[in-house]
Amino acid sequence: MVRIGAFLVGLFFAGWLLISFLVGAVAYVTDPPAKTVEHEFHQAPKHVSFSFDGPFGKYDRAQLQRGFQVFKEVCSACHSLHYVAFRDLKALGYNEAEIKAIAKQWAIKAPDVDPKTGEMSTRDPVPADYFPKPFANNVAAAAANNNAIPPDLSLMTKARHHGNAYIYSLLTGYQSQPAELLKAFPDSKTPEGLHYNPYFANLNLAMAPPLTADDQVTYGDGTKATVDQMSQDVAAFLTWTAEPKLENRRRAGLATIIFLLIATGLAYMSYQNIWADKKKAA
Amino acid sequence: MSFPWAEQYTPKHPVMQWVDEKLPLPRLVYNAVGAGYPVPRNLNYFWNFGVLAGLALVIQLVTGVIMAMHYGANTLVAFSSVEQTMRDVNAGWLMRYAHANGASFFFIVVYLHIFRGLYFGSYKAPREMVWLLGLVIFLLMMATAFMGYVLPWGQMSYWGAKVITGLFGAIPVVGEPIQTWLLGGFAPGNASLNRFFSLHFLLPFVIAAVVILHIWALHIPGSSNPTGVEVKGPQDTVPFHPYYTAKDGFGAGVFLILFAILLFFLPNYLGHPDNYIEANPLSTPAHIVPEWYFWPFYAILRAFTVDFFFIPAKLLGVLAMFASILLLFFLPWLDTSSVRSGSYRPTFKKFFWILVIDVLILGYCGGAPAEEPYVMISQIASAYYFAHFLIVLPLISRFEKPLPLPNSITEAVLAKHGHSDGETAAVPAE
C-alpha cells in the first residue's frame, strides 16, 4: 500500500514538474526573456586593495583617520553613522583629549532635553554620544534630498557584496550615460535629478557625485587628496565602522587555530594509539 | 533506560556504589557512551557525525543563551541590540559569529549524518525508529533556524518571515487566517518577533530531548556499520569508550578547526549582505533567499510554475516542498532491499550518487534568482528527487542483485587490514 501510494505521488509530482518544464522551455524558446538594462550595464565592483585584505591584514590607522576626515567633511552632511560613538574613535589612534575635541566641535549637535524646562534642546556631543544624525527623521531626510533617504553608513560595507570595493567603485564610478545604452534602451535615460553610475544596482543614483575634485579635503599627514585616494580612505574607514573588531577577531582566530591544531594532533595520536591493536588482524 | 547490549557497570569506589544505588546515573552514562556500550569495530569516519551534531547543538545552546542575555525582542531595538552585542559586549562578536556560523555547521554535519544514513541504509529494520526520530530532529532544526534568522530583524529576516509564513497563506480558504494567526498580525511585526524569540529559545531544548530519544532508540539494536552486516559476537565489537571516544575526539578537533576558520576569518561568508540592513516593510529586496541550508527545498518550492487544473502552482510548490521532507519518513518501507549498505548494492549506488548531485544542483538553483535557466533546471532536478525516492528506489530494491556480503564484521575488517601480517587473514587467490 505504502509503495503504491508513493508511486502515485511520485508520478504526480515528477510528471507535473516535467510538464511545467516543457511549458517553461517552450515559452523560453518562443518568447525569450527580454534583456534588462541593469543586466547589460551594471558592473561588478572594481578591484582595489587594502591593508586589511587577507587573513592577517590590519587596519592602517593613518588611512582610517584620513577616511574619517572625508566622512566628517563630506559624507556626514547627509549620512548618519549611528552605531558608532565618538569614544570608538580611540581605535583610530586618537587620544581622549582629541576625541573630546572632535565631539565638541562636531557640526551636528546631540539631541537632549533641557533639564529645567523639559523642552527638547541640543548640546555639544561628548565622547559617550553616538554620531548625531544629520536629519531629525526620515521625512526631513527625504525632503532635503530629492525624495531619497541617505542610508546610515555604519554597516554599509557589510550590507553590500564586496562592500569596501563597492564604496570605492561607487564614489569613483560616476560617468555620463554610454551612447550604446541609450541606443539599446531608449527608455532608460537617467531621470532628472539622478546620476548615472554603473556600480549602483539600478544604475541611477540619487546621490550627486560627492567627491568631485582633488584636494576637496586637506589631509593633515600630507597625503595627496586625489578623488581616488579619498574614495579608498573613506572605504577603509567604513570597513572599520562596520567591523571594528576585525583585528581582535583575526588575532583570536590565529591563537585558536594554533591551539586546535596541536590538540587535534594529540587527539589523532591518542586515537592511533588506542586502536593500534585493533587495526591489525585480531 | 536499559540497553539490552550494555555491559553492566560495577562501581568500585564506595561513594560511587552509594550514588549508583540511589540514582543509577553513572550506570546510564557507562551504558550509553562509556565502556559498557559495544560498538561495531569497523565504523568509518562517516560515523563521527552523530557526535559532531551533538557538539554543534551544545555550541548553539551555549552561544545562544549568552546572545539572549543581550538581545531585545522588540522591532524597535532588535537590530541595534544585535549591533550593540557585536560592538560593546565583551566577546559579543565572538558569540554572535559563533552562533550564526554554528547554525551552518550544525546543518553541514547533520546533512552528512543523513547522507551516511541514506548510503549505508541505517534507516532499515531494526533501526526505523532511530531514523524517524532523526527526521523529527531535522524538522525541529529547520523551524529553529528559520525563527533564529528572523531575530536580528534585518531585511532578509523580515522578508524571509513574510515569504515562509506566506506558504501557509497558499492553503485554500483557511490559508490567510492561518498566516495571520501565525504572525499575530497581517505582516511580520512585534508580535511575530516576540513569539519567534520565545520559540527559538524553547525548541533547542526540545531538540535536546528528542536527541535523547534518538540515542535511546539507537541503543536498542546498537549501531549499524559500513558493511550493514549485524554484529555476530564479541569479536565484532569494541567498547565505545575508549575506542570511539578517541576517534570522536579527533573528529571533533577537525570539526572545530574548520569551524574556527570560517568563524574567525570568513564570518559573513555564508550570510546575506541584506541582513545588515534593518528591516524595512516598505522596501522589498531584489532577491529574497533563505539561508543556504534551505536552498534545495526552496528550489523545489519555486519549481512549480504551472497550475494543475484548480490547484494553483504556488500551493503545489508548498505541498511538494513539505512532501520532499515528509517522504523521508516512509523511506524504511520504500526501500525493501534486505541489504543495508550501499557498498553491496551496485544499482542503488549509481542512483544514490545521481541523487547527491541532484540535491547539490537543487541547492545551487535555490540560491540563484528565480530566473531562467535556474527554474527549468530546478524543475528537472525536483522531478528526479521525487522519482528517486518514490519510484526508482522501490523498483531497485525489488530487482537489484546485491553483491555477496561478508560473513561477519570481523571478516570484512580482516579482508581490509589483514594482508600485511597474513596470519589469520583470508588471502585472496592470486
Q: How much is the radius of gyration of chain B in Å?
A: 24 Å
Termini separation of chain A comes to: 47 Å
DSSP helix count of chain A?
9
**Biggest β-sheet strands, sense, barrel of chain A:** 2 strands, antiparallel
Defining key terms:
heterodimer; A: 282 residues; mainly alpha; Cytochrome Bc1 Complex, Chain D, domain 2; two-stranded antiparallel sheet; two-stranded antiparallel ribbon; 4 strands; 46% helix; B: 430 residues; Cytochrome Bc1 Complex, Chain C; 16 helices; 2 strands; 62% helix; 1% strand
Would you kindly provide a written description of the structure presented here, covering whatever features stand out?
The complex is a heterodimer of chains A (282) and B (430). With 282 residues, chain A is mainly alpha-helical. Among the domains of chain A are: 1-33; 37-84 and 130-244, Orthogonal Bundle (Cytochrome Bc1 Complex, Chain D, domain 2). Helices cover 46% and strands 4% of the residues of chain A. Chain A is built from nine helices and four strands, in the order ααααββαααββαα. Chain A has a two-stranded antiparallel sheet with strand order 1-2. In chain A, α6 packs antiparallel against α8 (227-242). The model of chain A has no long low-confidence stretch (mean pLDDT 93). Chain B folds into two domains: 39-288, Cytochrome Bc1 Complex, Chain C (Up-down Bundle), CATH 1.20.810; 295-411. With 430 residues, chain B is mostly helical. Chain B has a two-stranded antiparallel ribbon. The chains are: A mainly alpha (282), B mainly alpha (430). Chains A and B meet through α1 and α9 of A and α4, α5, α10, α12 and α15 of B.
